[in-house]
C-alpha cells in the first residue's frame, strides 16, 4: 500500500513513515526487491555486468591491505596455519564478478599459510541464482572467469541464504569480509515512495530525500552491526557502496554523457506503463554519500562500541566499459552497441519495474511484457545516440577492521 499511497496522505504521516522505516531496518525486510533476471544457471549477471569486474578490481589495493592485516592478526593470535581462513562475499549475485578477486585472496592466503583450510562463504537472498554461482565457482560454465576451485587444495565453498541485514555466519568466524554493489539495497522503500522520480537520487522532493536518507542510515548501521558480530578479532571488512560524489555524479549519471540512465528509465517507463504504474515503481535503494557511509564510525557510536573502526574511505568513478569500447571504435554498429549495453542496466533493475506493474494489478505475464517493451525502447534510444549513454559507476570504497 505504501507504494501506491497518495502524496497527500504521505505528507500527513511523516513521523509514522520514519518510525516504520526504522523498525523495518531491524526487524523485517521486503521480499522480491531484487529477483534475478535471465535464465537460472546461465551466468547472465556475470556475462552482462562487465563493469562490476572493474569496480571489484578497483577494490584490490584496499583488499590487499585488509588481507595483510587479517593475516598478521592470525599470526599474533597463534592461529595462523592452524584454523581455517574464512572469507565472506556478501550480496554476491551469481558470484562470477568477484571470482578474480577471491582467486587472488585465496592465492595470497595459501602462500602465507600453506596448511590451513580456506573457506569461501557466499551470501545472498534465498531467491538468488545459486545455480549459476555453483557452476561459475566450480568452473562448469563455459566462458566463465578462471576459478580458484580448479587449482587450490583444501579450499571449500559454503553459501548462506540469509539477508545481510541478518547475521549470516557464526559470531567471530570471518577473517575477511567483502561486498561490492549490494548494500545500497534498503530493507524497504520508505512510506509513500518517491513522488517525482523512480530513484531517490533523482528526486527533487525534500521530504523524500530526508526519508530515504533516514532509512539508509538506519539500514547501514544495522548492516555494520551484523558484520561486527561475524568478524573475528582482527578481522577486516572492505565494501564498495554505490554513492553520490561531491560533483553530483552517481550510477548512470556522470559528466561523460548527456543522457542519464535513471531519468531515461523514468521517461520511458511513464511512456510505456502510464502514470499509475510509474508512481508505484520505486527503487528501494539509496546511493549514499561518502559522509553517510562513514558516519556510523564516529567515536561513541554503536558501530564503534561493537568493535569496528574505519581504516580508510574514498569515493571514485569507474567508467562504463561499454561506452569506452564504443569510443575506442571497438564497436561501430549503433544497434549492436545498444544490444550489448542495455542488458547491464537490466540485470539489477528488472524486478523493480515488474514489482511496480504487479502492485497495480497487472498479471505476471502482463508485467513482464511491459518491462520487455521498456527495454526495447531503451535499446532504440541508445542506438540513436550511442556515445551519450553509459552506466558509469560511482562508489565509496572503504575498509574497516574489528578490534
Keywords:
44% helix; 14% strand; globular; alpha/beta; 403 residues
Question: What would you say this structure looks like, in words?
Answer:
With 403 residues, the protein is α/β, with parallel strands linked by helices. The protein has 16 helices and seven strands. Helix 2 packs parallel to helix 8 and helix 15 crosses helix 16.
Indicate the percent of residues in helices.
40-55%
Low-confidence stretches: 1-27
Calculate the terminal CA-CA distance, rounded to whole Å: 43 Å
Structural class: alpha/beta
Shape: globular
The average pLDDT score comes to 92
Beta strands, count: 7
Gyration radius, rounded: 21 Å
**What is the overall number of helices?**
16
Largest sheet: 7 strands, mixed
Strand order of the largest sheet: 3-2-1-4-5-7-6
Helix and strand arrangement:
Blueprint: H1 7-12, H2 14-27, H3 44-48, H4 50-58, H5 60-77, E1 85-90, H6 99-112, E2 118-123, H7 130-137, E3 155-160, E4 174-180, H8 206-230, E5 231-242, H9 261-273, H10 275-280, H11 290-294, H12 302-305, E6 308-318, H13 321-327, H14 334-346, H15 350-359, H16 364-384, E7 393-402
Helix pairs in contact: 2-8, 5-6, 9-16, 14-16, 15-16
Describe the structure concisely.
The protein is 44% helix and 14% strand.
Amino acid at each position: 500500500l505504501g507504494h501506491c499511497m497518495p502524496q497527500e496522505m504521505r505528507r500527513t504521516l511523516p513521523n509514522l513513515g520514519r518510525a516504520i522505516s526504522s523498525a523495518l531496518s531491524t526487524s523485517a525486510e521486503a521480499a522480491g526487491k531484487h529477483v534475478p533476471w535471465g535464465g537460472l544457471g546461465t551466468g547472465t549477471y556475470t556475462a552482462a555486468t562487465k563493469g562490476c569486474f572493474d569496480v571489484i578490481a578497483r577494490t584490490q589495493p584496499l583488499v590487499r591491505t585488509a588481507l595483510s592485516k587479517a593475516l598478521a592478526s592470525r599470526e599474533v593470535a597463534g592461529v595462523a596455519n592452524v584454523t581455517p581462513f574464512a572469507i565472506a562475499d556478501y550480496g554476491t549475485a551469481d558470484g562470477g564478478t568477484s571470482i578474480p578477486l577471491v582467486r587472488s585472496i585465496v592465492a595470497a592466503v595459501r602462500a602465507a599459510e600453506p596448511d590451513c583450510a580456506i573457506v569461501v562463504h557466499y551470501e545472498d537472498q534465498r531467491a538468488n541464482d545459486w545455480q549459476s554461482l555453483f557452476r561459475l565457482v566450480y568452473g562448469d560454465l563455459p566462458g566463465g572467469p578462471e576459478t580458484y576451485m580448479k587449482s587450490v587444495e583444501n579450499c571449500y565453498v559454503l553459501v548462506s541464504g540469509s539477508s545481510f541485514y541478518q547475521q549470516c555466519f557464526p559470531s567471530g568466524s570471518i577473517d575477511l569480509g567483502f561486498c561490492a554493489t549490494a548494500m545500497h539495497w534498503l530493507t524497504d522503500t520508505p512510506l509513500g515512495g518517491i513522488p517525482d522520480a523512480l530513484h531517490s537520487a533523482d528526486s527533487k522532493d525534500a521530504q523524500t530525500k530526508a526519508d530515504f536518507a533516514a532509512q539508509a542510515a538506519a539500514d547501514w548501521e544495522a548492516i555494520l552491526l551484523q558484520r561486527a558480530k561475524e568478524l573475528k578479532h582482527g578481522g577486516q571488512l572492505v565494501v564498495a557502496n554505490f554513492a553520490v560524489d561531491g560533483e553530483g555524479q552517481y550510477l548512470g549519471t556522470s559528466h561523460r554523457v548527456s543522457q542519464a540512465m535513471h531519468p531515461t528509465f523514468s521517461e520511458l517507463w511513464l511512456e510505456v506503463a502510464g502514470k499509475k504504474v510509474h508512481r508505484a515503481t520505486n527503487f528501494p535503494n539509496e546511493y549514499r554519500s561518502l559522509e553517510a557511509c562513514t558516519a556510523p564510525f564516529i567515536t561513541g557510536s554503536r558501530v564503534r562500541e561493537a568493535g569496528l573502526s574505519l581504516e580508510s574511505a574514498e569515493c571514485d568513478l569507474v567508467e562504463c566499459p561499454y561506452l569506452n569500447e564504443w569510443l575506442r571504435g571497438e564497436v561501430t554498429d549503433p544497434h549492436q552497441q545498444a544490444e550489448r549495453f542495455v542488458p547491464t542496466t537490466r540485470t539489477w533493475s528488472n524486478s523493480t519495474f515488474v514489482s511496480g506493474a504487479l502492485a497495480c494489478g497487472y498479471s505476471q505475464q502482463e508485467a513482464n511484457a511491459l518491462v520487455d517493451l521498456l527495454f526495447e525502447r531503451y535499446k532504440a534510444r541508445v542506438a540513436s545516440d550511442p556515445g551519450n549513454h553509459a552506466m558509469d559507476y560511482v562508489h565509496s570504497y572503504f575498509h574497516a577492521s574489528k578490534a
